Structures
1.
Amino acid sequence: MTFPWQSRKVTVTGGASFIGSTLVDALLARGATVRVVDDLSSGVMRNIQHVVDDGSVELIQGNLLDPDVSRRAVEGVDTVFHLAADHGGRGYVDLHQYACSTNLGLDAILFKNVVDAGVEQVVYASSGCIYPLYLQADIGETLYLTEDMEKAPGYDPDGLYGLAKVAAELTLRAMHNEFGVKTASARYFTVYGPRGVENHAVIAMIARSFLKQDPFMVWGNGEQIRNWTYVDDIVEGTIRCAEHIEDGTAVNLGTMERVRVLDAVNMVCEMAGYEPAIELQPDMPTGPMNRVADNSLAKSLLGWEPQVLFEEGLRRTFDWYTSTKDIDEVREIFDFMLTERGTPPSKVTASPTSEK
Ligand SMILES: NC(=O)c1ccc[n+]([C@@H]2O[C@H](COP(=O)([O-])OP(=O)(O)OC[C@H]3O[C@@H](n4cnc5c(N)ncnc54)[C@H](O)[C@@H]3O)[C@@H](O)[C@H]2O)c1
């Protein structure tokens, strides 16, 4: 039976973000009625302007740490896709632990409102950052993280950002067990694609190549292994979580392609048509050395499989970035964006009405 999206009212928190706005487009295409709740602290209006302007999305611009905004966010909807979070790329989450800790409060307030309002279903944007760091140190190991490794033999999530994701997943399981709310957690692994921002590695690499950076800076020793996963695949998996999971189960959404940072850099430079010197920056944040998902559970539970191989997704993302960005603007924001989120202070002053 096909899922009745056409009769569903949904809220996407963080719906102006890179992944959130792509999810909004996919839900609208399925016929759902969509509300976006976002404070535009890192999400941007341009990602959703088209669907706000044509009236297909209701936008509540507000801070979900405000209990009243949170209450209004979930009022009268069937499904909440919860993506709002204080979050950025590796430079951001490593250097802004306090800010990431506020997600504990944001999630707790939202989930309480879900229970109080009797909302039927919540799908949560979790992360590969919930997995114990001690498992992910050895690049010589062909490791694929399976869902049961979350706490074996002990929790060791990736900072307060990862800890908040663990707490939310556990809360959602409790909400199912104790109140019958249908819940699911989708563990995203290093997502990239159009609308991505420079504080994430792939977009940062593309931005460096766009600026023809030479020497080309690489954080760490470049040997880190990742399974960068294309945004359309992530969105498809997230929607399938709503369609197939009710009991709080968490599933990995990630490819099983193992890509070394230095190999990704070489691919990007080849697309940009130049051969810069590579300068390693071992003191910059790198995250775990070896993080790749096992996606068999998503295959069996959701019938989900990534459709976009890294080389193809990288090409699409490179083409999007280089055809939509202004080189002077990228030069102006780039250093800020490597470790921050939202709008650089210079842009706020220069254009008070510009997107946050
Ligand atoms: N990008 C990735 O690789 C990745 C990997 C794993 C998990 N995730 C998760 O996916 C979700 C979306 O991430 P993203 O990369 O698209 O971009 P993002 O981090 O910009 O998304 C967060 C969104 O939430 C909004 N937001 C933040 N705090 C808010 C608040 N207090 N009130 C209202 N809105 C608020 C932001 O403006 C933004 O639109 C996040 O939950 C993130 O943790 C992303």
2.
Amino acid sequence: MSNPYETQRLVDEYLLFHYGQDHEILPWENGPVSALNFPVRTVTALLPPSHAHAARALDIGCATGRSAFELSRTCAEVQAIDFSLAFIKAAQTIQSAGALSYQISLEAHLTQPLTAELPPGVHPERVTFQQGDAMNLPASLCSFDIVHAANLICRLTEPLRFLQRLPALIKPGGHLLLTTPCTWLADYTPPGRWPAASTLDWLKETLLPDFTLAQQKDLPFLIREHARKFQWSVALGTVWQRR
Ligand SMILES: C[S@@+](CC[C@H](N)C(=O)[O-])C[C@H]1O[C@@H](n2cnc3c(N)ncnc32)[C@H](O)[C@@H]1O
């Protein structure tokens, strides 16, 4: 399968998911509003309030960059990595130009132009975006206070390889903020590498030797495909503290 995250359709879908106003994403009165602003909530709901303000953070699987910018509000340095060059270029344009035009789908061939804007109050100068592979991170990449990995693991061909790299990435006392909708699909991950039982049990088995489970929280999110079709999902959010 060619990488769907390199397509313009998904760049546009993620620009709306990350930067869209509530009414732009969900133009329906009775829709699931609690599922809006997911890339902000993965930071605000999971980041320990007491973390050091000199913190170094890594956002891995950053997509079009919203959570990385949110981390920059309180972290001195944010490295943001994604495998999709198209996503990284979109994030870098918002960082340097402050805005990026895109199209959202209404239905069929009908589209509407929108602009993704750098959120007020963030510190783009603290963020570095780069293309990279979560399963093949350079050995020199290390010593983060915070690693944020939202909805990444079930999009990896070898999720265990990424999880096994985490103890070396995070300083003792540092935190891993992990979310996953547990949507395991053979298109991304061979079924032999899916968790044998629940994703939470598999995470505990893999991470507990090096981390303590500090928090667990369900985080709903909404991805709009077009004006009348949405994906409503509930991510399992967990916070792990490195021993
Ligand atoms: C479901 S999206 C989640 C994006 C973002 N964290 C969010 O919550 O909106 C999965 C992301 O993981 C990225 N990704 C997939 N495989 C990757 C890999 N091997 N290394 C780094 N990023 C990867 C995709 O390009 C995509 O941006």
